[in-house]
Amino acid sequence: MSIVSRQEFAKLCGDTVNALNAYIGRGKIIFMDESKKKIDTDHPINKAHLKNRIAFLEKKQEQQNLLSSIGPNPRKPPQEFLSQEEDDIPESFDPGLMTALLSAGKSGGKSGGDDDYQKWVKMKIRGDAEYISLKVETEKIKLSKAAGESLPIEIALNAHRIYLKTIVTAFENSIMNMANKFCHIMAAGDMAMYTKIVEECRYELNRCVADAGGDTNIELEKMIKEFSGKNKGR
Q1: Alpha-carbon distance 189 to 181, whole Å?
Q2: N- to C-terminal Cα separation, the chain
Q3: Which helix (DSSP H) or strand (DSSP E) does residue 3 occupy?
Q4: Averaged over 121-137, what is the pLDDT?
Q5: CA distances from 230 to 152, 188, 224, 226 (A)
Q6: Mean pLDDT lowest for which of 45-54, 102-111, 205-214?
Q7: Can you tell me the distance from the alpha carbon of 68 to that of 125, in angstroms, rounded to the nearest whole number?
Q8: What is the residue-wise DSSP string for 82-101?
Q9: pLDDT attached to residue 15
Q10: What CA–CA distance (Å, rounded) separates 122 from 129?
Q11: Which of 102, 146, 155, 96 minimizes the C-alpha distance to 124?
């Protein structure tokens, strides 16, 4: 059995103490005593968490090694070429425009064909850079999800559905309990009245849930669109 402090366990997991506290709050780490100062690394829950974190760190290192192994573009022109004024570089990557520029450069057109070809080369370089940047951002998102730092929208929606289902089940149980009490107090345990009360209450509950579910879906869609719009603007 290996007993360590919070700081030591956080270091083993490659986390900060604040991140470790978040895992503790979610029940993924268990203390060995009521003082909540010492952690047993051999405890099954702690051992599993440590194993997962080590696997995540190894995967993250592999991804970083992969990104760092991406060599320079062999078609990249000299640095002095890149430092020239780029105000005249078109922002559009329309295939027709790029084909026209390439043809003009290769044919040595009468009207600045070489300049047009250089514009195409700059556009190609920018496209390569944006593609690599997109790959890097994609890997960052994958790592963030693997670390539990962000949740896919599908998981958030499923969690919301589970939450609503739990509430509905609890309400239905309460309805039956209340109907039973009403019948005993007001109708000497008349089961016909009990059945009627339960049916009426369930009808009203289902109607409320349906209305609330529609309103919630609308609000969730608005929130997702706003969130997506903010991220696109970054």
Answers
A1: 8
A2: 48
A3: strand 3-5
A4: 69
A5: 16, 61, 10, 6
A6: 102-111
A7: 19
A8: HTS--TT--S---HHHHHHH
A9: 86
A10: 11
A11: 102
